[in-house]
Amino acid sequence: MIRVLTDLGPCMDFVHSFEGDPVYSDPMISNESQMECNLLRSVQKPNDRVLGVFDGEELTGLFVFLILEAEAYAEMIVGLSRSEAAWNEIADWLREGFPGFQADFVFNPRNPLARQLLEREGADFEPEQLKMLFSGSCPETDTAGVELLSDDYLEQYLAMHGTDAYWTGEKVAAAPERFRVLLAVEKGTVQGYLDVTHCFDENEPYDLWVRPEARRRGWGRKLMTKALELNHPKDMMLLVDVDNEAAIRLYRGTGFLPAPGKGCQTAFWHIPKK
């Protein structure tokens, strides 16, 4: 049975039982900042649905979903359960309540129950990602040419921005309270961009891209270095595909170190229409 939860106090022993579990822990609540933002505050957010799955009176699953009705979009923010039946109930809830929606899942790649459910539903999987944490020390780098997004460069930024993720250029530019956008500018031409959050205790780059013809000229390092300067004294983390050796070298070169066992994977389930 699924119940909508308005008070997480009675659930916290259940939540804490997943901490440090290499298989069933959730990468979206791996530190205090994430726990506060993605779980504890979720009961106050109008677009979040906080769900408990119960077997009788026993809590067997705790899930938080972002639901954007107007955009036919759902995203699993938190998914905690060691019960196959609980995961199946959540799939049924999504299938029944949100036909035609795109549902994104970020999950522990070692979690067999999440993977089995998503494979069964025909979801598309992105590569497994490595989590890296900023060490607090970034080698000195010249950041000349890096500018904050302004109206002068908005059109160029939007034209080059990726469109295959929820946070498109238009949405990022419309959310300055969440994102800082840095541009690599050379003689009036935008050569690349970095979208990075700035409103959390631990911030995260969402999208880093440089034009192919402008690569191998240090723009990626310049953008990341400037982002770290502006983010100080807050922490920063990032996710990178485990097989993207060039990106991992870039991030190591700007002071990031791997966080073993903290990786994640993303899958996209297009829920069938009835």
General description of the model:
This protein is α+β, with helices and mostly antiparallel strands. It contains 8 helices and 15 strands. The chain has helices at residues 12-16, 32-40, 84-97, 112-120, 154-160, 169-173, 219-231, 245-253, and strands at 2-4, 48-55, 58-68, 73-81, 102-107, 124-125, 129-134, 146-148, 179-186, 189-197, 202-203, 205-210, 235-241, 256-258, 265-270. The model has no long low-confidence stretch (mean pLDDT 95).
Question: For the record, what is the CATH homologous superfamily label of the largest domain?
Answer: Gcn5-related N-acetyltransferase (GNAT)
Count of beta strands: 15
Number of individual domains: 2
**If you compute it from the alpha carbons, what radius of gyration comes out, rounded to the nearest whole angstrom?**
20 Å
Assign a percent range to the helix content. 25-40%
Poorly predicted parts: none
The CATH architecture of the largest domain: 3-Layer(aba) Sandwich
CATH T-level topology of the largest domain: Aminopeptidase
Q: What is the overall silhouette?
A: globular
The chain-level structural class is: alpha+beta
Percent strand equals 25-35%
- CATH class placement of the largest domain: Alpha Beta
Average of per-residue pLDDT values: 95
Number of helices: 8
SSE order in H/E notation? EHHEEEHEHEEEHHEEEEHEHEE
Q: How far is the first residue's CA from the last residue's CA?
A: 22 Å
Q: Largest sheet at a glance? A: 7 strands, mixed
Which sequence of strands runs across the widest sheet? Answer: 1-2-3-4-5-15-6
